[in-house]
Write a structure and sequence with these properties.
With 142 residues, the protein is mainly alpha-helical. The chain has 2 domains: 30 residues; 108 residues, Orthogonal Bundle (Arc Repressor Mutant, subunit A). The protein is built from 6 helices and 3 strands; from the N terminus they run ααβααββαα. The protein has a 3-stranded antiparallel β-sheet with strand order 1-3-2. Helix 3 packs across helix 4.
């Protein structure tokens, strides 16, 4: 990779992170923070899951995900399903309220992103999505 390309990517990522941080602090999309949204997404996309599975998928430690899941449970967004083979273990399933909050939050996010990309072609959006996915999957081991 040539140095100018690397410098452009580094600067643009720094700007992106700053702007995303500003959006999240001043323009809340609803009742979900990023961690809640991502955990609800995982459960919605993959079905009920235990803390260990959610932690592995999130690349977070079990104690962090356990606290996040407990907060979601307190808010009524998920409920525990006891493991019949291991009385200490459980899985989390999304509730109707959790599904409602998740879907509303997702639609608000999609609307904001669509507004930001309204001058982009379908092809540009598709390529950007593919490259963003590729980049995200390359930085899993931070």
């Amino acid at each position: 990779m040539n140095e100018p390309s690397l410098e452009t990517i580094e600067l643009e990522l720094a700007i992106l992170i700053r702007r995303v941080s500003l959006i999240t602090t001043c323009c809340k999309f609803g009742n979900l923070d990023r961690s809640a949204y991502l955990l609800l997404h995982q459960i919605t996309a993959h079905g009920s899951a235990g803390v260990k599975t959610l932690a592995n998928e999130s690349h977070l430690d079990i104690s962090t995900v356990s606290r996040q899941a407990a907060t979601l449970e307190q808010k009524g967004y998920v409920y525990r399903i006891p493991d019949p083979l291991d009385g200490r273990a459980c899985s989390f399933q999304i509730t109707e309220l959790g599904t409602k909050e998740y879907n509303e939050h997702k639609q608000a996010r999609l609307a904001k992103i669509a507004d930001n990309l309204k001058t982009w072609s379908d092809e540009e959006c598709e390529v950007f999505g593919q490259l963003l996915r590729k980049y995200n999957s390359s930085i899993i081991n931070i």
